[in-house]
Amino acid sequence: MKVDIHKSWQPYLQPEFDKPYFKKLANFVKTEYKNGTCFPPENQIFNAFNQCPFNQVKVVIIGQDPYHGDGQANGLCFSVNDGVAHPPSLINIFKEIEQDLKIPYPKSGNLLRWANQGVLLLNATLTVRAHQAGSHQKKGWELFTNAVIKLISDSKEDVIFLLWGGFAKQKSKLIDKEKHCILESGHPSPLSANRGYWFGNKHFSKTNFLLKQKGNKTIAW
Predict the structure, then answer these.
(1) The whole model's pTM is what?
(2) CA nearest neighbour of 128 among 57, 52, 63
(3) Sequence-separated (6 or more) residues with CB below 8 Å from residue 48
(4) How far apart are CA 197 and CA 188, in angstroms?
(5) What is the rounded average pLDDT of the residues 116-130?
(6) Contact residues for 131 (Cβ-Cβ < 8 A; gap 6+)
(7) What is the pLDDT at residue 194?
(8) What is the distance, to the nearest Å, from the Cα of residue 110 to the centroid of all Cα atoms in its chain?
(9) Is residue 146 exposed (0-12), middle (13-18) or buried (19+ Cβ within 10 Å)?
(10) Which of the residues are catalytic?
């Protein structure tokens, strides 16, 4: 696996790339992509970092796994490529934005527009085997992405972390709550949303309020 990552991240993450676990992970991923279909495309594995340089990160959203269906994943959590049907969690994200901010439901599920405004859309596991959810978990990606979360916490200030669902909430222990803001809610998946744990969290208006308070530009969700 070629580590194709934006130069702004390199000085911070090079120590991780040099660790034995990451070299083992890179070999595993390289073999997986060589022997079968995996997602996202190999040149988009580090897309979250490439579309949101380190110095521009002001919001972090944490997902679990890339989508494992054909043509969906593009390296940004919860995001799908233009023209791809919106998965259920993304539909619920857009419905909450619609209610919260009174803006129309978007046609495209590609969240590149968020990444380019400083939203790091980070999956805990950056790759997956086609049609096999969770197939690349516990191979080393979680060690890497935990290090990324801790790096952001240690090296930056006033970042807003949106932790949706039990898996993402576990990451709060990596974040310095004195320096950063954490907003938590249920996951946008239908199972959680239909039980009342997602809708009405107003995370998008709250995020913009907090950004404005710190003199930062708000996100055009």
Answers:
(1) 0.97
(2) 63
(3) 75, 76, 77, 115, 120, 121, 122, 123, 126
(4) 8
(5) 98
(6) 68, 69
(7) 85
(8) 13
(9) middle
(10) 65
